[in-house]
């Protein structure tokens, strides 16, 4: 069973940046055939999507809450999707998850991002 592992989280001050990565554990996984989405869940809140990248043309989309601050990208050769987060705000504090959607869906375990001064 393939696993997706997030990395790059941590503590950052408001206005700062972080880059999250999510990598599939199996080299033979057909990563390029999967749409990748980043989600987040704040304490007491619902899980919400924050970035999406298509499998085919690598088109992207974002909710208004992060548009212009977050950038999703993928490197299919490395089986990895990235989330560049700039100008971070207190309200971006959450556990961030990646999800691969295709023939099946796979979730990463999540990684904490804390924005605090």
Short description:
The chain is an all-beta fold and 117 residues long. It is 0% helix and 49% strand.
What topology emerges from the helices and strands here?
Blueprint: E1 4-7, E2 10-12, E3 18-24, E4 35-41, E5 48-53, E6 60-61, E7 70-75, E8 80-85, E9 94-101, E10 105-107, E11 111-115
Parallel strand pairs: 2-11
Antiparallel strand pairs: 1-3, 3-8, 4-5, 4-9, 5-6, 7-8, 9-10, 9-11
Q: How much helicity do the residues have?
A: under 10%
Question: How many individual helices?
Answer: 0
* Morphology: globular
Residue-averaged pLDDT, rounded? 96
Number of strands: 11
Regions with pLDDT < 50 over 5+ consecutive residues? Answer: none
Oligomer: single chain
Report the radius of gyration as a whole number of Å. 14 Å
Report the sheet with the most strands, covering strand number, pairing sense and barrel closure: 7 strands, mixed
Helix and strand content put the structural class at mainly beta
H-E string: EEEEEEEEEEE
């Amino acid at each position: 069973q393939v696993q997706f592992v997030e990395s790059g989280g941590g503590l950052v001050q408001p206005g700062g940046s972080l880059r999250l990565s999510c990598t599939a554990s199996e080299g033979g996984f057909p990563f390029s055939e999967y749409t990748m989405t980043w989600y987040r869940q704040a304490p007491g809140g619902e899980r919400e999507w924050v970035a999406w990248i298509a499998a085919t043309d690598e088109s992207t989309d974002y909710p208004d809450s992060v548009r212009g601050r977050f950038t999703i990208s993928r490197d299919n050769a490395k089986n990895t999707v990235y989330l560049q987060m700039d100008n971070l705000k207190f309200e971006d504090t959450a556990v961030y998850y990646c999800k691969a959607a295709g023939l099946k869906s796979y979730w990463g375990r999540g990684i904490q991002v804390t924005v605090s001064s």
